[in-house]
Write a structure and sequence with these properties.
Layout (H helix, E strand, L loop, with lengths): L28 H4 L16 H7 L4 H4 L6 E2 L6 E7 L2 E7 L2 E8 L3 E8 L7 E6 L4 E6 L9 E4 L4 E8 L2 E8 H6 L12 E5 L7 E5 L2 E5 L9 E6 L22 E3 L5 E3 L3 E4 L4 E6 L4 E5 L6 E11 L2 E12 L3 E8 L4 E7 L4 H4 L8 E2 L2 E2 H7 L1 E2 L6 E4 L8
């Protein structure tokens, strides 16, 4: 696959989809039995290109993007860190579940958690041609449902969870570059923000110093999308940590123990079952899915009326089940929207035949041609922001 800068691939535009029908899938043992070097992940797809195209026959916009796709790592197994008496040991799991997707100008980041909850969660790193670079281990077994990349500062943001509270943690690119999982230590965070207004961070996107975060819910009245405008203080030359604060004092609280708590600048009501969010500076994309039914990828336009803001003019497309995060990218040729699915994980691929074992990129034109105006898509309207309580 040939990619450049912060943009990926290109796809043909063909309309719409059919509901997936499950049938038994047999893993290709020759590919499954490939030796996976300790500390790395499998890189082969579960299906051949021909098999993938056949499985995606009900979703032409995905089917026709296969030639420029990258394979999801770890589908035949991957190594991570398992807690041991005196720290951690390297161990293999065949059940890592893809969750989050982010892109920098050099790398593709895919987060995953161990379905059996034995190993810490990980982030697989590929180059833009899909070649496996490394795995970084996080320091817990969080769901890591959302990740986002700050290209200006070279920071990967990770949707985290600690002691039942929503957290966003930052990993600096320099730390990622030097990290080696064979050290048997989790990667170090440069900074963590506690988000008091959300029970968990199951979706996340970073764009233009704005962090978008959300929490999955089956109830629309509980679904929201808070926005956090981040500000970072200048640091002296030689300091290791470049991220020192977020926003203004109205949205930041630091506890006596040093925890940084943030609250949103603004929040919007969203539809239920939102798994992923992405903002490309012009459109907001929401990925919705739950169970074996078709997923839904919707695009909204911002509408300003004085000081009031909404997102409307919803446009949607049906995609295969188990859609998770969605990312956006661009190059000199086009803008892209890039969905990531968890359906190739062993538990889920038993339930649907239309599982997606690779990451494909749809051009904005392809999305436009394959989607339709969605009268059922509700407007995203402003709701009150949850205020962070003091100590």
């Amino acid at each position: 696959m040939r990619v450049c800068a912060a943009g990926l691939f290109f796809a043909l535009a063909i309309p719409f989809s059919l509901t997936a029908c499950a049938r038994p899938f047999e893993v290709d043992r020759e590919r499954a039995d490939d030796v996976i070097p300790v500390g790395t992940a499998s890189v082969n797809p579960l299906r051949t290109d021909k098999e993938f195209q056949a499985a995606m026959s009900g979703y032409p916009v995905i089917r026709d993007a296969f030639s420029n796709a990258v394979n999801v790592p770890g589908l035949y197994g991957a190594y991570g860190l398992a807690a041991a008496k005196d720290g951690y040991v390297l161990a293999r799991s065949d059940g890592f579940t893809p969750q989050g997707l982010a892109l920098s100008e050099e790398f593709v980041f895919i987060s995953a958690y161990d379905h059996d909850r034995q190993l810490n969660s990980v982030i697989f790193i590929l180059d833009l041609d899909g070649r496996f670079i490394k795995t970084i281990s996080l320091d817990n077994k969080a769901h890591v449902g959302g990740i986002g990349y700050d290209s200006e500062r070279g920071v990967l943001w990770v949707g985290d969870r600690r002691e039942g509270r929503a957290v966003i943690s930052a990993v600096e690119q320099e730390v990622i570059d030097s990290y080696d999982i064979e050290s048997k230590q989790p990667v170090e965070y440069g900074l963590s923000f506690y988000i008091d207004s959300l029970p968990a961070t199951s979706s996340l996107s970073f764009s233009e110093d704005v962090l978008w975060a959300g929490n999955f819910s089956n109830e629309a009245e509980e679904s929201q999308l808070p926005l956090f405008s981040l500000e970072f203080a200048d640091v002296a030359e030689g300091d290791d940590v470049t991220l020192t604060r977020a926003g203004d004092s109205n949205h930041v609280r630091i506890t006596k123990s040093g925890e940084i708590h943030i609250t949103a600048d603004v929040a919007f009501r969203t539809p239920k079952e939102v798994q992923g969010i992405a903002w490309d500076g012009e459109y907001l994309y929401l990925a919705q899915s739950f169970g074996t039914k078709d997923s839904k990828l919707s695009r909204y336009e911002p509408v300003l009326d004085g000081e009031d803001a909404t997102f409307g003019k919803g446009r949607s497309i049906a995609l295969p089940p188990y859609l998770e995060q969605v990312a956006v990218a661009e190059n000199d040729e086009a803008n892209y929207v890039i969905p990531l699915f968890e359906s190739a994980q062993p538990t889920y691929r038993k339930k649907v035949d239309a599982f997606v074992d690779r990451v494909v990129a749809l051009t904005r034109d392809a999305f436009e041609d394959a989607s339709a105006d969605d009268r059922e898509a509700p407007q995203l309207t402003e709701i009150p922001v949850t205020v962070v309580d003091g100590d």
